[in-house]
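Case study 2.
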Amino acid sequence: MWRSSSPCDLGLRAAPYLTPPEAPTRLPDVDEAIAEFVGNLSARGRSPHTVAAYRRDLEAFRRFALDELRPVPASFAEVDHRQLRRYLAELHRQGKAPASVRRALSSLSALYSFQLERGYATQNPVTRLQAPKLPKRLPKVLSPDQLNAFFGAMDLTTPVGQRDRAWSELLYAAGLRVSECCGLDIGDVTFEDQHMKVLGKRDKERLVPFGDVAAAALKLYLSQGRPALIAEGGVPTEPGALFLGQHGQRLSRSRMLQQMKLYARAAGLNADISPHVLRHSCATHLLDGNADLRIVQELLGHESLSTTQIYTHVSVQRLRSVYDRAHPRSGREDKA
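Prediction:
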């Protein structure tokens, strides 16, 4: 257990436009601080997935502090940048990827910002640390032929195959995030002009279109596959959920990923496939077809255009590959 904190007075951080909170008579211990911060995230409407990720990161630091720091800090206010640097070294020793290390730092920094607002801390020691740089990786994209093989691996004579064809076609047709697809309700889909109401990051709603192929797959699932799943699994736990599991529950992201890997192997593709690969493929193929970058940004629900611009690099790379293979003066000697 964390040792209890003793009452103390803190110097308050100057906060422009805000009245500083009164100095607390007792600092929350580390467990209490994590619980209060995570509870605040939930109260602000952050998604359960986001809240769970913050909790995991902060609990990992808590375990490190209990095992490695002496004396064990009574509160986050007692943790300094040197101790945080030791934690980063431990993450590197464990072989954590740069993205995971950056996320751990981001979670701690967000907690310290919250502590500053509450008057529990006087500084954010994370600001004195250097986050590892992320390697620049282009998103993985499937070609049209690979997509046809992937979709063709689904058995449309079965309820599960009809369901999986429907959600996978929507992921590709509309560039959905997996959480957005899992969260769809029947009432979110309109067939008259073929669009969906999608709840994206930070609970931002947007309308996204989908094409005839996705519409046909979805209609087949709604008319045959979904009723069959209900007959087998019983009354749905969420009657409005669009995609159901085999026991009446809303289909989960983990189940989608499992199914995708099965179909990828059956289609002879790299098993390292995910729902985000379909989202990447949608964006890249739209830009290959001369779609406007800002339209793609709106479709994907990106807040910043710079996030969408990574797909232009994918398209340029593919153009370079085709040029090298086809142009007689490209300098390549392995042309057919």
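Strands lie at 189-190, 195-199, 205-209.
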